[in-house]
Amino acid sequence: MPVVPNVVGATTGAIVASAHTGSTATVIILISYVLWGMGMGIAMMLVTTYLIRLTMFKLPPKESIASMLIPLGPLGQSSYGIQQLGIQALRIFPTEFPQIEYLGNMLYGIGFFFGLLLWALASWWLTLGIYSAIYTRGRGPVPFNLGWWALIFPVSTFISSSSSLWGITKFTFFRVLAAALIVSLFLLWLFVLLRTIWYAWSGELFKPDNVDRLVTLENKSNSPSTGACNPANSMDASVIV
């Protein structure tokens, strides 16, 4: 996704700025805010598009059900990033921009407020992703593939956001939630790693289960008896995506 480098870069900029002072830290923070604005804006557009896709075509195929948690990544990372930028703005801007009174305090408050809102949206998406995985598993076995690695980064960004909220508010809820998710993420990472090694060793990892289905859909779309505007073709294309 094109949003990930921007929001990750913005968060990294806040961390780098914490090791600097003066004009150097100011430039880093301002550039990070620009990156965050670009990444967050595009992220909201893509998340909306993905939600519309779910509304129209329901859940993805079981082979790619892990993709349900991908939107959690930019949401959690954006929440964490704007909080860290606010912390650095509170530290640097009062001395660098004395002509703008309370700028650092304002950006710190905005960072907490928008970080909390984005965390809330990410919480909803995490719940939706977990429910979708349970629902799909209840309808039959879910084949393992490398797409399962898409679960790691999104959950880790949500943990970072929760930990940052605990650092700002000192609410025990965020601390307990972050600790529980860290343990869960480690177990998930270990499970996916072991499955990857096992399936790679046996060779099953390199035999996609949906090759025949994709070939069938491709042949149907290339058939002269079906038009380009046929709704069935649109549905098949969406399933492939």
What attributes characterize this protein structure?
elongated; mainly alpha; 8 helices; Plasma membrane sulfite pump involved in sulfite metabolism; 2 domains; 76% helix; 241 residues; disordered C terminus
Q: Could you please describe the fold and organization of this structure?
A:
The protein is an all-alpha fold. It folds into two domains: 3-207, no CATH class; 210-241, no CATH class. Helices cover 76% and strands 0% of the residues. It has eight helices and no strands. Helix 1 packs antiparallel against helix 2 (22-57) and helix 4 packs across helix 5 (152-169). It is elongated, with a radius of gyration of 22 Å. The two termini are 14 Å apart. The model is unreliable at 225-241 (pLDDT under 50).
Alpha-carbon Rg, integer: 22 Å
Order of helices and strands: HHHHHHHH
Sheet/helix structural class: mainly alpha
Domain module count: 2
Average pLDDT taken over every residue:
84
How many individual β-strands?
Answer: 0
Described by strand count, sense and barrel closure, the largest sheet is: none
Please mark out the parts with pLDDT under 50 across 5 or more consecutive residues, or reply none. 225-241
Please state roughly what percent of the residues sit in beta strands, choosing from under 5%, 5-15%, 15-25%, 25-35%, 35-45% or over 45%.
Answer: under 5%
Measure the end-to-end span: 14 Å
Helical stretch tally: 8
Choose one word for the global shape.
Answer: elongated
SSE blueprint and pairings:
Elements: H1 3-17, H2 22-57, H3 72-96, H4 103-138, H5 152-169, H6 172-202, H7 211-222, H8 231-240
